Amino acid sequence: MSTATTAEAPAKAPTGIRPPVMDADGRIGPRANLRHIGALVRRNALQIKQDPESMFDAVFMPIIFTLLFVYVFGGAVSGKGNQGEYVNYLIPGLMAMQGLNIAMAVGTGINDDFKKGVMDRFRTMPIARSSVLIAKIVVEIGRMMVATSILLIMGFILGLSIHTSVLELLAAVGLSLVFGASLMWIFILLGLTMKTAQAVQGVAMLVLMPLQFGSSIFAKPTTMPGWLQTFTDYNPLSNLADAARNLVNGGPVAHSALMTMGWAVAITAITAPLAVAKFRKRT
């Protein structure tokens, strides 16, 4: 009887991953990199389609937060009977918070993917390491857009009114997406550094709570003690909330928007290279 030597079959690449076109220095070319990102985005999107429960946070959190803060805290913050006025203050602020919540999920997801061996499979493929992480961020930006759309729908149902224009509303949404994408690099790095998804979530909450509640998202800083007002002034979420609020309600935008973009660029420039390097070296 003849025998045959069996070997472990190589990992099957996602649809669209083809042998890369190398530059003269041996690097993967930009066209191949974009093609790989597109294939990985499609793979991640199909995963969401197969597991609709992964969209629960993007769908239900905006509804819960809006109802909770408008009807439970709105009267205390803006005075009884002034919930309508508080809606116009709160909703642009919650746009800033959406990115932070979605970004935390990215970190736990990356950590879980390593535990399942998914990322080890990707690292054996002839693709740029950054394309795996960028594809993840692109899909999460899509989830953030869904969450923001639901938030705005809830806002309009509860009486949100736009005192500027649709273009300025879209600018507020775009600013929130850009800043949210920069935050994802922080949580990706955290997910690649911590040993478990629970640890990522625990550390993330230690970051989330002070940033969210020590900001102008829920209440005006003028009601806070002096030391907390100082923290709020330098809190990037306050800058984003103020920029979005003024784009929706009218008011000076330039300073807050420039500060938000500055934070987004700085965060991405520092954490993105660190995250890619950590992705390459993680065992």
UniProtKB/TrEMBL annotation:
Superkingdom field: Bacteria
Compartments (UniProt record): Cell membrane; Membrane
ABC transmembrane type-2 domain segment(s): 53-282
DNA-binding found in the keyword field: no
Bilayer disposition of the protein: Multi-pass membrane protein
PANTHER family (alphabetical): NODULATION PROTEIN J
Family in the record: Belongs to the ABC-2 integral membrane protein family.
Name of the protein this chain belongs to: Transport permease protein
Organism: Streptomyces noboritoensis
